[in-house]
């Protein structure tokens, strides 16, 4: 089905078997702030590496899997089947950086990240600049041999695990004053301080703190690419992540439908199994139909990337895939909770966890509203035939 090659199917099978072995640890993770036994964690991380499931998005010459976008989607789809972000150990390092990283940056941060010896995070969003990144207030001031960075960043995912962060700021002076630049900042560094670590709906081991950067001095070698290109890199990252978010939402929906179907088949109500009731059947049928639609959409959009489709078309299709898959998965989770009844409201139940966890998929990497704006604007510029 879906025209997958034998290599695609084998990769998908390996990723699925890997995630199947993580699923039994979800309960433990839920009870321990997202953490699992460190020995199990280490064993699974090393297996992920041996099985070629990490850094699928990075070229082979840098130590990655060199997978097609469709294959990356297949792996991340399986990642989405586990709750509590357990599958995040199948990490996808910053592939947008590959083409622009200096030799120094490649050796110092990028390749170690691919090897699993370094971990990145992204400090872009601010209190007053989320959907509209052009409103950032963080600054980068040029000094003779580097830059001084200042700003307060929100929701910095994985900061507690990271060894460095990307920091996007507005240049205050020089020929590119007023434009954005991207910097690498080691964690920890002088002047980098966690303001607070808010609690979020999900229970995962990656925190999302508010982080202050106060007079942080970085050398010139920490500037990524060129001054003025910061926004381009952020957009590259968003486009990639939109594919990955969509993929994980498919995996979540797949798991939820399987679990809800087995429950409905086993549960007996007044006059027989729950699954014999048409109101329940309708919920399962709608969920399955929407999963099929989302999967077909995403795989086709991923193939477009592999075929080198026009970048603006890729951009619009990534938005359509993220928009539809994230909203679909939320509907599926809502129905699954309903099918499980009271059990579906218990934290020990997969539907309850996904019901909380999937909500953010409609918010991060661009909210549903922002995806709709992107799609509509591309429709106005390019017309329907170019996009679908
Ligand atoms: C758990 C979590 C982790 C995150 N991780 C990171 C991270 O690692 N790094 C990082 O930099 N950021 C991260 N983010 C930030 C995330 O990308 C933003 O929250 C998101 O882009 C929305 O921005 P905002 O929260 O400021 O909402 P706002 O931009 O304030 O939007 C509020 C509401 O207004 C709507 N809206 C905004 N503009 C428009 C418009 N033009 N038309 C119609 N409606 C509009 C939005 O859709 C939303 O409904 C994370 C967020 C969360 C919740």
The percent range for helix content is 40-55%
Tell me the structural class.
Answer: alpha+beta
Please give the CATH class of the largest domain: Mainly Alpha
What is the string of SSEs from the N terminus onward? Answer: HHHHHEEEEEEEEHEEHHHHH
Query: How far apart lie the N and C ends?
Result: 21 Å
Described by strand count, sense and barrel closure, the largest sheet is: 8 strands, mixed
CATH superfamily of the largest domain: Butyryl-CoA Dehydrogenase, subunit A, domain 3
Low-confidence stretches: none
The CATH topology name of the largest domain reads: Butyryl-CoA Dehydrogenase, subunit A, domain 3
On the 0-100 scale, what is the average pLDDT? 97
The small molecules bound here are:
flavin-adenine dinucleotide
How many domains? The number is: 3
Number of helices: 11
Backbone shape? globular
- Computed Rg: 22 Å
Protein model, in words:
The structure is a single chain. The protein has 388 residues and is α+β, with helices and mostly antiparallel strands. The chain is built from eleven helices and ten strands. Helix 4 (69-79) crosses helix 6, helix 7 (278-306) runs antiparallel to helix 8 (311-340) and helix 8 packs antiparallel against helix 10 (368-382). The longest helix has 37 residues, at 230-266. The mean pLDDT is 97. The chain binds flavin-adenine dinucleotide. Residues 121-122, 124-125, 130-131, 155-157, 200, 208, 360, 363-364, 366-367, 369-370, 373 line the site of flavin-adenine dinucleotide (FAD). Residues 121-122, 124-125, 130-131, 155-157, 200, 208, 360, 363-364, 366-367, 369-370, 373 line the site of flavin-adenine dinucleotide.
